[in-house]
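Troubleshooting entry. The earlier prediction with glutamine gave an output that would not parse, so I re-checked the input for stray whitespace and re-submitted. Clean input:
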Amino acid sequence: MSETEPDLAAIVRDIAAEMLTRKDRGTVATYIPELANVDAQRFGLAIVDVAGNVYAGGDSALPFSIQSISKVFTLTLALGRIGDRLWRHVGREPSGNRFNSIVQLEHELGVPRNPFINAGAIAVTDVILSGRQPRETLGEILRFLQFLADDTTISIDQDVAASEKRTGFRNVALANYMKSFGVIENPVDYTLGVYFHHCAIAMSCEQLARAGLFLSCNGVNPLTAFSVVSAERARRINALMLTCGHYDGSGEFAYRVGLPGKSGVGGGILAIAPGKASIAVWSPGLDEAGNSHLGRIALEEFTRRTGWSIFGP
Ligand code: GLN
């Protein structure tokens, strides 16, 4: 191994061992009741490099609720569907507010700030739904993830979806509010049904890291040689992940980790090291911004040791 090539196996082993012993684990999300049952002691980490080598540690094979990480993949599908016309439905700026905030929507006439806050992701889901039935749309999203991860066992956790539907009053408010401005085209119930279910997809760190690999390789999945998106589109999705992927914690994540990343309230983070690897980490406890507490710390340690921050070593 050359000096410039980090020893990924050792790095993963060390980080997983350290994270399992840490006492500061954040707080598991409780506003979706089903997520409150997840064991805060869990920790998983998986790296798939551009040559297809997998380095994994801890609970890396255990599926968890990917929640908002699904929004990277729905954004990819919506851009594939309508291209740059998507930006009529949703903006591209960081919001500086919590992920489920409604406050900007009135000023901005129902057009959400970006595709990763809840309002923006609901608008993106609505775009994919147009011209289709909800069941078909959901099947398309699920199959896209199965295709990217090359794993047909990936499925939706129906209990999580039902739990979110039962208690998702905030999302119902966001969707209705956008509908009143004409930003949502389909019946609100249909759009939200698809949204809740794609957030409830369960994946392991290993599956997620494989699914994100095209973003590390100019839009091509190096394992299958399939071109998923153009290099330009991959670069832009990465830019949105960097600026908006952690909501009001995006600045802090860029400062500490320095990689495009997308978090979910299930405690997962997908991070992209362009030209090098796709990394997925999972620790269910969250920080105040709703991002995985130890997940961020683990990634900070990862870029410190690899020197892979996009801003330099
Ligand atoms: N499904 C969650 C919600 O809508 C997603 C939020 C998240 O992961 N940040 O509230």
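This one parsed fine. The two ends are 19 Å apart (CA to CA).
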